[in-house]
Amino acid sequence: MSQSTDQAPLKTNRSRLRRSHERGHYDRAAIDQVLAAMPMCHIAYEIDGAPSILPTLQWREGDYVYWHGSAASRALRAMEGKSVCLSVSCLDGYVLARSAMHHSVNFRSVMLFGEAERVEGDHAATSLERMFDALFPGRWETLRPMTDQEFKATWVMRMPITEGAAKIRSGGPKDDEEDYELPIWAGVVPIEMNLMPPIDDAETRLDVPQPDHLSRIKLG
Amino acid sequence: MSQSTDQAPLKTNRSRLRRSHERGHYDRAAIDQVLAAMPMCHIAYEIDGAPSILPTLQWREGDYVYWHGSAASRALRAMEGKSVCLSVSCLDGYVLARSAMHHSVNFRSVMLFGEAERVEGDHAATSLERMFDALFPGRWETLRPMTDQEFKATWVMRMPITEGAAKIRSGGPKDDEEDYELPIWAGVVPIEMNLMPPIDDAETRLDVPQPDHLSRIKLG
């Protein structure tokens, strides 16, 4: 599939696919938008002399990206104070071209490089609340409060948003000029990630309705 | 969020949430199912002495996972013959518990460890066709054939499916026993990744309809 960064002029025909092929390095606003769109991230770190990956959830506070896990996590302990790479990717569509070579995907992605740092004490507690604000706004204050034991069992980590970039590809295929005359269908199969209606836990008390804050959960 | 591997007995009440918390290590069939459900993967590798990530598409052929990219890709050149970690993750839902601690996510994931190997010659050409069979079945034979130049510009890589595991979590929250009586809503917000109706490229010839093979593209 094409790795080209060619950019074709935009077209304004709304009934068909707009040709736009923006890629490359973006400003901080683009990075923040992608981080906000997709909480799932993959963090590369080294353990036992080889690269490994931690799939987890991320949230942003100012100029840092945060994640958390069990205090017993080998991954978190291995990455503390070490270089890591955090990647967030939204797969937005398949781009089907007239030749195999120019098939591609539409995506929004962020890649960050830096040192993973453990956050402790009050800062860690506040950050867990910020995670809920990011993922499930309005929910934290409805929950049974966290115990000291639970705080102790939880590690909060972060890395600065200093080195890295956002990359975005959107729009239709970019074929070789001579291929446009071929009788081959080309276009995009969009991909969407959607939240579905909440499902009550079997043990939820019958007098407890679905709370309004469920409607504030966003994705994409 | 909970890292527990507790398993609760299944319930059969279909109108509410089934409690199942399967996690951990699965057999080869589970690995193959997750690989088939989600082509997007993240590959951790080392470059310039630090971990990095390549987000790309994977497909399986027998006991290997394959990916490809530009012959000019620094990432592919850096990982050839080296240890890598390939991760595939499907985010299937948010699991909302009665305490912050037991919030979790439902997911299907695979993590593989091994050495990345470059595939060359006829094997590479055949593998690119297999990639289309996996992603866009029926499309390869409708395309303008790849040129020698295009084959030369494309690297195909693979790693064996020998070391690694699938992990799956599904079902509702698993709260502390004493929290079930609290008047707090708990349940799951499912997440689905869906293919949307194909969009014609603005340059598609008017006499070329959307081909039947578009309906054979699957995800999830």
From TrEMBL, chains A, B:
Residues 1-23 are annotated as: Disordered. InterPro entries: Pyridox_Oxase-rel (IPR024747), Split_barrel_FMN-bd (IPR012349). Pfam families: Pyridox_ox_2. Residues 1-12 have a biased composition (Polar residues). Residues 13-22 have a biased composition (Basic residues). It comes from the Bacteria. PANTHER family: 5-NITROIMIDAZOLE ANTIBIOTICS RESISTANCE PROTEIN, NIMA-FAMILY-RELATED PROTEIN-RELATED (PTHR34071), FLAVIN-NUCLEOTIDE-BINDING PROTEIN (PTHR34071:SF2). This is Pyridoxamine 5'-phosphate oxidase family protein. It comes from Tritonibacter litoralis.
